[in-house]
Amino acid sequence: MVLRTLALELTRQNTQAFTLYSSSSSEKIFLAQSLIKENLERCPQQKISPEDFIQKDDLGVRELLSERKKEGIYEFAHKTFLEYLAAVEISISQQ
């Protein structure tokens, strides 16, 4: 659910890159910390921070994202993942 809503918002913002903290980069980067935190709070079985969520191997998150560590910027490993998850979110939420 978290990745679906993130993918849809990135699509709306017309970007593939996001960060958990503000970025000084000149490229268009979505600040996703509050969106991820809000969605994690809807999952009572997952009591983790947005930072921990992004790093979770057992949830499959790390396999779908790539990171530019030095900059703290994340992207879906492939645009197809982003598009698929956004489409699923649109379908489920009937938007």
Tell me about this structure.
- The structure is a single chain.
- The chain is α+β, with helices and mostly antiparallel strands and 95 residues long.
- The protein has one domain.
- The chain has helices spanning 2-12, 33-41, 50-55, 61-64, 79-93; strands at 17-19, 30-31, 65-68, 73-76.
- Strands 2-1-4-3 form a four-stranded mixed beta sheet.
- Strand 3 (65-68) and strand 4 form a beta hairpin.
- Helix 1 runs antiparallel to helix 2 (33-41) and helix 1 (2-12) crosses helix 5.
- The longest helix is centred in the last third of the chain and has 15 residues, at 79-93.
- It is globular and about 35 Å long.
Itemize the secondary structure elements and their pairings.
Blueprint: H1 2-12, E1 17-19, E2 30-31, H2 33-41, H3 50-55, H4 61-64, E3 65-68, E4 73-76, H5 79-93
Parallel strand pairs: 1-2
Antiparallel strand pairs: 1-4, 3-4
